[in-house]
Structure formats: C-alpha cells, structure tokens
Design goal:
This protein is mainly alpha-helical and about 110 residues long. It is built from 4 helices and no strands. Helix 2 runs antiparallel to helix 3. The model has no long low-confidence stretch (mean pLDDT about 85).
C-alpha cells in the first residue's frame, strides 16, 4: 500500500513540475542510468530472494549498490557489503527473530 502511494505521489510531482513549466529532461546523464539500474536491481533482489536466500542476495545487491556509486575501491565495496549484510542478518535473524529465506546456502 505504501509503495503504491509513493508511486502515485511521485508521478503527481512530475506532472506538477511539468505543468508549472519546468521542462528539464527527466532522463539525462549518468544519474538517470544509475537510478534505472538501482530500480532494476531492487526488482531482481525481490525476485531472487527465495532462490538465493537472504545472505547471498543481500550481499550481491549491497555490492552492486555500493559499486554503482563509483566512488570506492572494490575492497571497500566488498568490506561494506559484508559488514552490512552480516549486520542485517544478525538484526533480523537473531535479534528480531524474523525467519529469513535460506535459499542456496541453507543456513
């Protein structure tokens, strides 16, 4: 419900900007490519979560998202991805006791 509401409000903002005369191109340059790739990666994350499991899927998406900024070395991207994934796994799996998809790794 919240996602649908956000989509509707986002479209409304775009149309309102257009109505007020802001004719700046919506999709131009590197930022639009990054925005589209982030959107597609989130869709892929949702589709692959049950197949790959929480750990592997989350590690891959964080790696992609951190790398897509283009500001960090692969060592920083890998380290940040591992730390973020492990933290999320511990928080949701152990502290909040939310069952997470196991997928290929079976733990």
């Amino acid at each position: 419900v919240a996602g649908v509401l956000l989509i509707i409000l986002s479209v409304a903002v775009v149309f309102e900007e257009r109505r007020q005369g802001n004719k700046a191109p919506l999709w131009k340059g590197r930022k639009s490519v990054v925005a589209i790739s982030v959107l597609l990666s989130l869709i892929a994350y949702a589709l692959l979560l049950d197949i790959l499991g929480f750990l592997l899927d989350t590690l891959l998406i964080f790696g992609f998202l951190f790398a897509s900024s283009g500001k960090h070395s692969w060592k920083v991207v890998l380290g940040a991805s591992l730390i973020t994934t492990a933290s999320a796994f511990l928080l949701f799996g152990y502290v909040l006791k939310i069952p997470l998809p196991v997928g290929l790794l079976h733990f």
